[in-house]
Amino acid sequence: MTLSTAIAGADAVASRLKGPQGPKPRKRFSRRNIFIYGTLIVVALYYALPLYVMIVTSLKGMPEIRLGNIFAPPVEITFEPWVKAWSEACTGLNCEGLSRGFWNSVRITVPSVFLSIAIASVNGYALANWKFKGAEAFFTILIFGAFIPYQVMLYPIVIILREIGLYGTLWGLVLVHSIFGMPILTLLFRNYFTSLPEELFKAARVDGARFWGIYFRIMLPMSLPIFVVAMIIQVTGIWNDFLFGVVYTKPDTYPMTVQLNNIVNSVQGVKEYNVNMAATILTGLVPLTIYFVSGKLFVRGIAAGAVKG
Questions:
Q1: Which of 6, 35, 85, 164 has the CB geometry, 3.0–4.6 Å to 279, for a possible disulfide?
Q2: Nearest of 108, 63, 80 to residue 279 by alpha carbon
Q3: Which of 195, 204, 193 has the alpha carbon at shortest distance from 125?
Q4: pTM above the 0.85 mark?
């Protein structure tokens, strides 16, 4: 036996005598863990229970709903309420269900999101990297506009849209959503671009890149998370909007939320709770789907400096 082998054997014996090394393992059911997970479960149930009731109610027929047990799963599953909510429910004088309102909402949301994000991203990029005279005053005024209550601006905007011939049209509502989304989105993009390494911007300037070259070749490829944050904020806000939709459009161009209100608050005929629940779920599917699909990027965008001062 060599000396090195003997030393290694002695070290192994000594380590076994000392017992296990490293930090002491935590108990799986400690008081801290029980409190944390218990609180999370209670909060999750609090928010999930109404959704569960909506789903099971939308899958029941009216005779089963009249039994009064709203928490019981459906005895016989039916999708008739969903079909009626989509294509047959009356929203005022129109009895085509939510289908027309859905496509109106799509035609409102897509251009509004594109225009507001495109303009706000350029605004934020310019305010963060291209200092110009009056930039701080411009930014202060822009942010101040984000805190003006929408209700104060309703009538003046009606007059403006009427004068330019867009009142009651989808493009008029697109213009309104794009303008009102500008302040908060500009703040998000400015703070995000400020958090990016300044050396990249300076190196691009040294290499001869100009305003649009830096924006498209450097800033945009690095800004996917904040664009997802802005998209989720805008899609959620525009798709769920009711106030602007009912004020600036007409029955033929009502968005989905206004039609949902007309279905749920109808005072004619029998109250069909299963149809109401199905219509509510259909109205909320788009923003929910977008959030769940891009939720990780949303968190990355927030963590990367989207809301830093």
A1: 85
A2: 80
A3: 193
A4: no
Give pLDDT tens digits for 233-250: 899 899 999 989 999 988
Amino acid, res. 96 = E
How many other C-beta atoms lie within 10 A of the C-beta of residue 36?
11
* Per-residue pLDDT reduced to its tens digit, 56-86: 999 998 888 888 888 888 888 889 999 999 9
- SS3 label, residue 179: helix
The residue type found at 298 is F
Instruction: State the helix-helix crossing angle for 273-293 and 31-58, rounded to 10 degrees.
Output: 130
pLDDT single digits (tens) 6-30: 555 545 555 555 555 556 556 666 7
- Please classify residue 289 by burial: count the beta carbons closer than 10 Å to its beta carbon, then call 0-12 exposed, 13-18 middle and 19+ buried: exposed
Dist. CA 306–CA 193, nearest whole Å: 9
DSSP string, 157-169: HHHHHHHTT-TBS
- In CATH, the architecture of 99-253+278-306 is Orthogonal Bundle (1.10)
